[in-house]
Amino acid sequence: MIAQLERVLAGAKNLLRQAAASQAQESDTSLSLVKNRALVKVVKQTPGLQSRLSEIADAAKAQTKKMADDEAAYSKGLAQLKKDLSSLIS
């Protein structure tokens, strides 16, 4: 049973890493698109879009930071669960 719980924790950790990597890739893609020269050129010709492009860039940066914070918190929680599990079987 303990081995099964350890496998579940390891699986949760791997799932967390995959989700974080996927979110990071999405944020990177958004930031890349925001910096695209052709898009920037079009946006400069349309003043209403300039603020929207800035909002998108800010949102992508905020998402990246939140994702990193969430990953750290979840990793810490999983580490604590593993530590608690170890203390139970000792």
Task: Using brief descriptors, characterize the structure shown.
0% strand, 90 residues
Question: What can you tell me about this protein's structure?
Answer:
The structure is a single chain. By secondary structure, the chain is an all-alpha fold. Helix content is 94%, strand content 0%. The chain contains three helices and no strands. The mean pLDDT is 86.
Question: Which range best describes the helical content: under 10%, 10-25%, 25-40%, 40-55%, 55-70% or over 70%?
Answer: over 70%
How is the quaternary structure best described?
Answer: single chain
Largest sheet: none
Backbone CA Rg: 20 Å
Straight-line distance between termini: 14 Å
Judging from the principal axes of the Cα atoms, what is the shape?
rod-shaped
Average of per-residue pLDDT values: 86
Unreliable stretches (pLDDT < 50, length at least 5) are: none
Structural class: mainly alpha
Number of strands: 0
What's the SSE pattern? HHH
**Number of continuous helical runs:** 3
Strand content: under 5%
Short synopsis of the structure:
This protein has 90 residues and is mainly α.
